[in-house]
Amino acid sequence: KMYDLNEDDIQIIHDVNKILVVINDDYKKMVSKDQTKSSPYSMLNEEIDNLSNRLSMMENDFDQALKSLGNMYDDEVRAREQLEEIQQFLKICKDQMRSYKLPVINNSYFVQLNEANEAINEVIKELEKKPIVIKILNTRVDTARDLVLKLYNTTTDMIKTARLAEMAIVYGNRYRSKFEEVNQGLNDAEEYFYKGNYKDSLDTSIKVTSVVDENIYRKLMGIYEK
How far apart are CA 223 and CA 217, in angstroms? Predict the structure, then answer.
């Protein structure tokens, strides 16, 4: 997998490579001296210490480069995991909409749905790029998550409101024949409902039915939450 190494990361890798080549050459020279007995032991020992120190410093630089690459890999893995979670939330939204067949779904909902789908596709495109640009990938993931969570909240709120409105109308039907005000109000609530104005439908049905049953909302919530 290719990643978007910044200039500092690339420079560290080049520097480490150069240092390693020099250390290797110096090591060969030292070995040659030892074999020819051209240098005293104390000097060779000093050179070994020097090579060891240089190797240690090079390892620290190399570890830093590896850590940078490791962080990029972790970011990619995290992004893929978050993408799966985001897609699962989107699936929940679609399943909820299929299971509760609303008579009307407003255009604004489809706008949110399309925005969420497009944002997810942008994440997928970013993950398929070579090299992967981690900063852009993370931004794409954040955008997709925000849009899908917004859609999820819209979906659950809309379905809850519609279900409560429908329940309120059904509950209020028992008072239609006795109270003309309730009858007319529920007629209005039904009209709102079938036009997709679920909040207006709920508010209207609650308002007219509470005239004869002031505890209607509490009763509806009790039934809804069972």
Answer: 10
The answer, yes or no, to whether the previous bond of 40 is cis (omega within 30 of 0) is no
The per-residue pLDDT for range 14-61, each reduced to its tens digit, is 666 677 677 667 666 666 655 555 555 556 567 667 767 766 676 666
Secondary structure, 3-state, the chain: CCECCCHHHHHHHHHHHHHHHHHHHHHHHHHHHHHHCCCCHHHHHHHHHHHHHHHHHHHHHHHHHHHHHHHHHHHHHHHHHHHHHHHHHHHHHHHHHHHCCCCCCCHHHHHHHHHHHHHHHHHHHHHHCCCECHHHHHHHHHHHHHHHHHHHHHHHHHHHHHHHHHHHHHHHHHHCCCCHHHHHHHHHHHHHHHCCCHHHHHHHHHHHHCCCCCCHHHHHHHHHCC
pLDDT at 200 over 90: yes
pLDDT digits over 91-116, tens only? 999 999 999 889 999 999 999 999 99
Phi then psi for residue 3, to 5 deg, are: -125, 165
